[in-house]
Amino acid sequence: MTQPRIPHHVAIVMDGNGRWATRRYLPRVAGHKKGMDTLRACLRHCGERGIKVLTVFAFSSENWSRPADEVSGLMELLAVALAREIPQLRGEGVRVQFVGDRAPLSEKVRAGLAQAEADTASNNRLVFNVCFNYGGRWDIAQAAAKLAERGEPITEKSLGAALALAHVPDPDLIIRTGGEERLSNFLLWQAAYAELFFSERLWPEFDAAALDEALAAYASRERRYGMTSEQVAAPATPADRKAA
Ligand code: FPP
Q1: Which domain holds residue 123?
Q2: Quick check: is 3 in a domain?
Q3: Less packed terminus of the chain by CB within 10 Å, N or C?
């Protein structure tokens, strides 16, 4: 039996934690805590399925405008995750990378992020990118600013290389849970050719079967990158390209 096509890089907008909690008369932060359990299970499942890169949207540049207790709850979750999860991830061959603007984070959190990255730097089974205080527009702007500062020409290649996610290939599959169908400033540049999958499930309910459903949908899609179906089915050989 042939193996289904597995995406190399999966990215997820983990939406629906707040609704999950509110429906249970719980504070929104309880939804984020439950979302953390889902994330842990999802990461394991990605590893088992042979996915090499998982990128998640944990805190957006816009999330600062949420109620203060929710923002501090998310910061606390991050601190707890660093202390509790990193030793485990280190043992499982996961390389953790934080992607986003660290400047507004506390000195203690910044040190924790750097330590987690250093502790897992030599791992290569799966790269786990946690987008924290991240926005797609922020990333494109910071990349352009970096090039301008160095006096380098701005091309697709140079800009792509200056982005915060330049250490991994673009996502093949972007999943959004929670029933909304938009990117919300996630991976704007990198989403150019990604397959999109929207799930009605709230993130805390996105289990292994739901992930498999998204992977099955991905495996059934044809990715054409601007070519025709015929070209995708029979890619041009170097000789064809010479003759053209
Ligand atoms: C969106 O749901 C979710 C977030 C803003 C946070 C996602 C965070 C986690 C899953 C926990 C992992 C966190 C860290 C710090 C590693 P929402 O609150 O917008 O849901 P709603 O649309 O139902 O209100």
Answers
A1: 9-243
A2: no
A3: N
**Other C-beta atoms within 10 Å of 169: how many?**
12
Render pLDDT for 58-86 as a digit per residue (tens, 0 to 9).
999 899 999 999 999 999 999 889 889 99
Nearest ligand 1 atom, CA 28: 18
Query: Could you give the angle at the alpha carbon of 43 between the alpha carbons of 37 and 45, nearest 5°?
Result: 105
Domain CATH code at residue 34:
3.40.1180.10
Query: What residues are designated binding site for substrate?
Result: 16-20, 28, 32, 60-62, 64, 66, 176, 182-184
Q: Is residue 2 part of a domain?
A: no
**Structural domains counted in the chain:** 1
Instruction: List, for residues 196-222, the tens digit of each pLDDT value.
Output: 999 999 999 999 999 999 999 999 997
Active site annotation includes 63? yes
Q: Is 66 in the pocket of ligand 1 (CB under 6 A)?
A: no
